[in-house]
Structure formats: structure tokens, C-alpha cells
Amino acid sequence: MEIEKLASMAIIDCHTHFGGRDLDAIDTMLEKEAAGGIGEVAVLITSFPGRANANAEGLYAKSRHPQKIWLFAGLDYSAVARDVDHRLTYSLAAQVDRLAAIGCDGIKMLNGKPNYRKSSGIALDSVIYDEYLARLEERGFPVLWHVNDPEEFWDPDAAPEWARGPGWLYDETFPTKESIYEECERVLEKRPNLKIIFAHFYFLSDDLPRAAAFLDRYPNVHFDLAPGIEMLHNFAKRPDEAREFFLNYQDRIVFGTDFSPEGLQSRIWVVRNFLETDEEFHVPTDDSLFWPDHRTMIRGIALPHDALKKIYADNFRRIVSPAPRPLDRGRVIEELNRLTALHDALGYSPNAPRRVAMRLAEESV
Known about the structure:
Elements: E1 12-17, H1 25-35, E2 40-44, H2 55-64, E3 69-74, H3 92-102, E4 106-112, H4 114-120, H5 130-139, E5 143-147, H6 177-190, E6 196-198, H7 208-217, E7 221-224, H8 229-237, H9 239-248, E8 253-254, H10 265-276, E9 280-282, E10 297-299, H11 305-319, H12 329-346, H13 352-364
Parallel strand pairs: 1-2, 2-3, 3-4, 4-5, 5-6, 6-7, 7-8
Antiparallel strand pairs: 9-10
């Protein structure tokens, strides 16, 4: 079904990305989202050990569109680095308090993606994260957490062509999928009140009984629907089972697309068409993370209006907040100044926090 004919209702895209040199690209991204029927988004800032995060760009986007953007900030991993002037850093736990005070809406974690889990050498249940996770649980501050990857990424014969370029084929030198799940679930056992949205359906789309048992075991856990196109292919194998799952767990699922300023409307359409129709349709071929792929057809599950309403917006507002939290401009400037000094000390060029601080100063005149 054409995107213009899909349901007209409030939709929040809980999984988008923004960063880079073109600060004005946030306007383009929101325009593309609006053309797909989406009025509000959560911008997720990725971060992992060994690279600076893009919180400055995220703060700019939220500052520019405060009514439309929730910001899930990335951690500043320089806090656990050895070759950094720690007068410029804050502990991971202290960052939770600082980000909340600034007006961020949550934290994005990418440390569970197998390549970053391998390169960092830090287990998800490492003592390095103990105080941080305790602070998250204490404050009820939400986390959108990427843990694992599609099962076929460990099988070069089954992996799609598009997974090869980014280095997402995993061999015996990488942690196994099950070992990463074990680390994550030890965290959940220790911190049962963590408020978590797991990205990409926690990569359990091909095992819905396991997904159901997981959600039953951890009542504060939720899944987002940002593709990984394998997710929709897996659902399409058993559309009746998938539809029953979505109806049974309609309070635990949130809509997402993994959209970015370079994104195409087909990325929005493919998830919405799956949720809203019972059509059998071809996977979009214009998205480099969908195609080429040996799998082709997807069948929708035609959810009722009440379930769509929850998945599209109501669940996210309940989990995170009814509306984006307001930024504290003074704290934003303070954080940009800290990040500017930190990026200078680390030798990062161009210095994104300085550029954002200058842009905000210009726009406030």
C-alpha cells in the first residue's frame, strides 16, 4: 500500500541517528520523517570505547527542534580511558546525572554489538558498568540498548551481501551470540528495574517463543522494530504466529526505523506496511542495508488500530516521557565547553562541540 494511504495517527520514530558536519541536515531528516507520517523522533547518539561520541550534534538537533526530538545521548567513554586528563571527564554513573540535568531523555548503548564488544574487551556485566547501571536503575532513566546482531552474521554462507562491507561477518574470534545474551541477562537479573528498550527486537525475531519468555521474565524490557530487514523476513516466515505475538505483547513493542538524514522513505514504508496491511510485498531495493539479499518477500500482519496506537506512540511516551524533556541551556553550554576541551586534548579535528557551541551562540543573537 502506498505510504499516503496508510493510517493517520501519532507516530514517534524511537530509533533515528544524527551526526556529522551538516547540522542543518536535521531539518531534512524531520521533513522526510513527516512525509512518512512521523511527527516526532528519538535521536540516538552512538558511542563506544576508542571514539568520541556525537552528543554535541544531538544537543544541537534537540535545541533546534525541542518539541519534536527526544535525545538518547551516548556515553563519554574517555571516563574509562587511561591516556586522558580526567579533570575533563566524569564517571559513567555521574554522566547519568549530568545528562538528565541537561535535559536528555535517555542513553543509547552500542556496547552489545559484537564487533564493539570484541574491540572494547569489556563484558556487558563488567564491574566497569556496575555503578552506572545502578544509577540508571535508581533514576529510572531509560536506555535504548543494542545487544547482539542477526544470527546469520556468524554464518558467511547465510549472511546477506550488504553485511559484508561494514565488517559484520563474525568468526570464532568474536564473542558468540549466546555469550553476549548471557552477559546481558546477568545484568537484568542483577538490575531488574532497569528501564530498557532493546534495539532491533533484541535479534529474537526468528525465535518468538524465546522472545515471549524473555519479555515475561523481565517486565521492564521492551523491543523496538528498527530493521535489520532480517527481522521482517523472520516474521514473514510465520505471519500468523508473528501477529499473535504482536497482539499479546502490544504494550512491549515500540516503532522505530533506524532512520538518518540520508534515509529514504522506503525504510519507513516497509515497517509501516508490515504492521498495517496483510499484503505480500517485495523488500525495498533502494536501501543499502536491505539489499542485495537472497530473501525477497515480506507479508504484513495487519494489526488493529488499538495495537498500532500503542506501538506507534503510546508505549514510547509511557516508557520515556509524554513529551521531550526541555533542555537546560546553561548546562548545554557547560557540557559543550567541556567536550570542546576534551576533543582538543584528544586531538579530534574538526572539533564538533566547538562548532555546535558557535552555532548556538550565533542563533541566540
